[in-house]
Write a structure and sequence with these properties.
Blueprint (H helix, E strand, L loop, with lengths): L5 H8 L13 H15 L3 E5 L5 H6 L5 E6 L2 H7 L8 E6 L14 E5 L10 H10 L6 E7 L9 E4 L5 E6 L5 E5 L5 H8 L3 E8 L3 E8 L1
Parallel strand pairs: 1-2, 1-4, 2-3, 4-5
Antiparallel strand pairs: 5-10, 6-7, 7-8, 9-10
The protein binds S-adenosylmethionine.
The site of S-adenosylmethionine has 19 residues, from helix 1 and helix 3.
């Protein structure tokens, strides 16, 4: 098994990442997410964290005023750069989710697609602190992530001492990785966000959840 960071795993996976959006059983939920997200970001200046290949950037771009889409990996940003965002103002930039200090711009909404699940539970305060250092009080935080559905998700292979869960994943060329992937319930998410945010709204689909809250 390849032992590497989460960032390196996604760099290695970049070229085949979008396969995850072709899972047949998830298509109905994806259509629903694409209906739910644009109204949430309409007219907003969006900071997107861990934007990956720009799959959701393209969805947000149909309604947002502008988007600064960031990801730690140049490999995923390069794929995102090939997408058509229409007339929307979309900038792409490499940035670590835990150090957003060099990202230019002012934002009234922060979006994270399938990133929350990759934050170690112990790192949640650090991540939220970094987001709050770049945003004004009252900024909206929107999160989309996976629900655990046996048969559709990789099985949980290990649980760490803080309750973090891990999966074994492989790439098309056979390389294997252990990847941090948490599946919080609504109650868990509410508890994790409570010190930093209010007004949690939660929408639960079969394969995904969508949450929004207001940063304190
Ligand atoms: C599950 S993918 C989500 C990509 C995209 N948001 C989506 O939903 O399709 C996780 C992303 O996090 C990025 N990533 C990993 N570590 C990161 C870090 N420390 N800071 C920013 N991005 C990171 C990876 O490069 C990858 O693109």
């Amino acid at each position: 098994m390849t032992v590497c960071s989460l960032a390196d795993y996604y760099a290695d996976r970049a070229a085949e990442y979008d396969e995850v959006y072709r899972k047949p059983e998830r298509q109905g939920d994806l259509v629903r997410l694409k209906e739910l997200l644009p109204p949430l970001v309409a007219g907003k200046r969006v900071l997107e964290i861990a934007a990956g290949t720009g799959y959701w950037t393209q969805v947000l771009a149909t309604a947002a005023a502008q988007i600064m889409a960031t990801d730690i990996n140049a490999e995923t940003i390069a794929i995102a750069a090939q997408r058509d965002y229409g007339p929307a103002s979309v900038a792409l930039r490499t940035a670590d989710a835990y150090d957003l200090s060099a990202v230019p711009g002012e934002f009234d909404l922060v979006f994270c697609g399938f990133w929350w699940s990759h934050i170690l539970r112990a790192d949640i305060p650090r991540f939220l602190g970094g987001v709050r250092s770049r945003t004004e009080r009252g900024t909206t935080l929107v999160l989309v992530d996976n629900r655990y559905v046996a048969g559709s998700n990789h099985p949980i292979s290990r649980t760490g001492p803080d309750g973090d869960t891990y999966q074994r994943r492989s790439l098309a060329d056979g390389r294997e990785y252990e990847v941090l992937k948490n599946f919080p319930s609504r109650e868990q998410l509410a508890a994790d966000l409570e010190p930093a945010a209010t007004d949690l709204a939660w929408t639960e689909l079969t394969y995904y959840w969508l949450a929004s809250c207001v940063l304190r």
